[in-house]
Amino acid sequence: MTFNILFAASDIYLGNTIWYLITFAILMLLVKHYAWGPVSEMMEKRRQKVIEDLDSAADARKKAEILANEREAALKNSRQEATKILSDAKENAQKTSTEIVTAANTEAVSIRKKAEAEAKVAKSKALEDARQEVANISVAIAEKVIAKNLSAEDQKDLVDQFIKGLND
């Protein structure tokens, strides 16, 4: 009897196992037909999208690097232009400064020459006025001393002798 019980029990287990296997196989066929295909298709689309996104990101990175290089080159050019502009401005300022100093020196020399000429004229006029005054005073003194009027030629000779005496 114990043998029958074991055989009957194994029959039950064997029948259940076959039933489970058949159910599993049917379930696998249904999953393959209804779920596996769409899921596989969805996974393939997702894989393609990820690949495209990675490629797009790589392209974007390359474009960003190119733009960064272009911006850096533009910045470098801007710096060079700014340096050149500053250099030109300094050069122009120095040139203008030199021109102003030269013009001022020229004007100063001109003013000095004019002042010297005016001083010579004033000196000559003052000397002439002094000669005239000395001549008049000399004549007045001489008239009083000699008590007579001297001729113009005599007056001139007296003045010239008096001036020569002053210069010596």
Describe what this molecule looks like in 3D.
Helices cover 96% and strands 0% of the residues. The protein is mostly helical. The protein has one domain. Helix 1 (2-146) crosses helix 2. The longest helix has 145 residues, at 2-146. The model has no long low-confidence stretch (mean pLDDT 82).
Key words describing this protein structure:
168 residues; mainly alpha; 2 helices
How many angstroms does the end-to-end distance come to?
179 Å
Class by helix and strand content? mainly alpha
Q: State the total count of DSSP E strands.
A: 0
What are the secondary-structure elements, in order, as H or E?
A: HH
Q: Assess the beta-strand content as a share of residues.
A: under 5%
Major pleated sheet: none
| Assembly form of the protein | single chain
What Rg is obtained from the alpha carbons, in whole angstroms? 64 Å
Overall number of domains: 1
Helical fraction equals: over 70%
* Shape estimate: rod-shaped
- Overall mean pLDDT stands at 82
Give the number of helices: 2
Low-confidence stretches: none
Family: Belongs to the ATPase B chain family.
Coiled coil: 57-99
InterPro entries: ATP_synth_B-like_membr_sf (IPR028987), ATP_synth_b/b'su_bac/chlpt (IPR002146), ATP_synth_F0_bsu_bac (IPR005864), ATP_synthase_B_chain (IPR050059)
Main location: membrane
Short description:
96% of the residues lie in helices and 0% in strands.
